[in-house]
Amino acid sequence: MAACNACMQWQQALELFEKMRRSKLHPDLISFTAAISSAAVGGAWQQALSLLSEMRHLALKPNLLSYNSALSACEKGLQWQRSHAMLRQVQQERLRVDIISYNSAIAACEKCQQWQQALRLLQEICSLGHLQADVISYNAAISAHEKAHLWQGAVELLKAARRRGLRLDAVSHESALAALRPAEAEAPWEQSLALLEGILQQAIQLTSLGSAVVVQSCAAAEEWEKAFGLLGAMSLLQLKSDVNTHGMLLAECEQRGLSESEAKLLDL
């Protein structure tokens, strides 16, 4: 079954497990855990929970790996409430939950746009003595805030991670920048620009999407010179601007008679 999981052939792995049972063989803890892990690969949360329940019925006590696999299945299956309940069950059974357990639960909340639950779980990790939130924890929590258009919360989480000495990656910063989109947030353009400057100082490689948000923020605030300058910088960094942003700036150049800037934009 482990070989099937490694090849992402999770359905074949589950079929192999069923054949084992039909052959009157008695699956042990390792076999059940491997089967749950197979279900997790495919996001088959119902099968994962059914196998977990069957383990208990057979007096096989699930271990942390069993639960973490089931938590992963719930995350992929967008079952944040079940994921949360399972995390509590693991704690009740006196198993020492690890960061993988929490990250799966936070990711489930993020995927289901439950930013408050994601934040609570992150705060819970930080309050525990034996666990440290990692980049994955913060990425999921920041993304949850971005999906809820809560730019202040996303930026605060970035700052909190830095205070803890974590070096967040492009995923974290692009989620925070996405939360600052002018169409979705009444964020000051200075905030977008400050965030971009911080990213560049840390030599974090952004995609065109993240940089375009800052250009849009400046344009929405009618800070045209800064928007033009940023677009030029994006070109130097070999980042392409999106069509809407480019079109907006071209229209502004035409309206204001900025023929030189318009020519430069057409060359980008």
Automatic annotation (TrEMBL):
Keywords: Repeat. The keyword Repeat applies. PPR repeats lie at residues 28-62, 98-132, 134-168. InterPro entries: PPR_rpt (IPR002885), TPR-like_helical_dom_sf (IPR011990). It comes from the Eukaryota. The keyword Signal does not apply. Gene3D superfamilies: Tetratricopeptide repeat domain. This is Pentatricopeptide repeat-containing protein, chloroplastic. It comes from Polarella glacialis.
